[in-house]
Amino acid sequence: MFVIKTYFYKKIRAMQLTGIIKVKKDEQAVNDKFRKREFVLTDNSSQYPQLISFQLTQDRCSILDQIQVGDTVVVHFNIRGREWTSPQGEVKYFNTLEAWKIDRNSGGSSQPAVEQYENMPSAQGQEKDDLPF
């Protein structure tokens, strides 16, 4: 029973945002082992619309193929942050909103909470690199 409660607690901590797809960029091969695809979501939930940039990585890049500019979607994502030291020794910090699932918003609620976080990636097994993003 305790394991189940812990499991649900961790699932609830994942983040999601509903908005309209404004920009879809092409997939980029950063190197032979890493590829990414960026997109921008318009969040109209406040007085001033916010344009929020997300990225998909590796095999998740294809998720965006079935989504069109102008579609209203729910983006499920994690926040990633890293430190990078420039060749001049200056330390900089970068944040990335890494999407791992996109649901088309059909006007109602999206999937039940138990199902929507099933494929959430873990931070384990990620390679360390010196890229600032």
How would you describe what is shown here?
There is one protein chain. The protein has 133 residues and is mainly beta. Helix content is 11%, strand content 45%. The chain contains 2 helices and 6 strands, in the order H-E-E-E-E-E-E-H. It has helices at 2-12, 113-116, and strands at residues 15-24, 28-31, 34-43, 50-57, 72-85, 91-104. Strands 1, 2, 3, 4, 5 and 6 form a 6-stranded antiparallel β-sheet that branches. A hairpin with a 6-residue loop joins strand 3 (34-43) and strand 4. Residues 1-12 and 108-120 have low confidence and may be disordered.
Summed up, what is this model?
This protein is mostly beta strands and 133 residues long. It has helices spanning 2-12, 113-116, and strands spanning 15-24, 28-31, 34-43, 50-57, 72-85, 91-104. It is globular.
Q: Layout of helices and strands, plus pairs?
A:
Blueprint: H1 2-12, E1 15-24, E2 28-31, E3 34-43, E4 50-57, E5 72-85, E6 91-104, H2 113-116
Task: Give the tally of β-strands.
Answer: 6
Main sheet attributes: strand count, strand direction, barrel closure: 6 strands, antiparallel
Structural class: mainly beta
What gap, in angstroms, lies between the N and C termini? 39 Å
* Share of residues in helices: 10-25%
Q: What percentage of amino acids are in beta strands?
A: over 45%
Q: So what's the overall shape?
A: globular
Q: What's the helix count?
A: 2
Rg (CA only):
16 Å
Task: Indicate the mean pLDDT.
Answer: 76
Low-confidence stretches: 1-12, 108-120
Question: What is the N-to-C succession of helices and strands?
Answer: HEEEEEEH
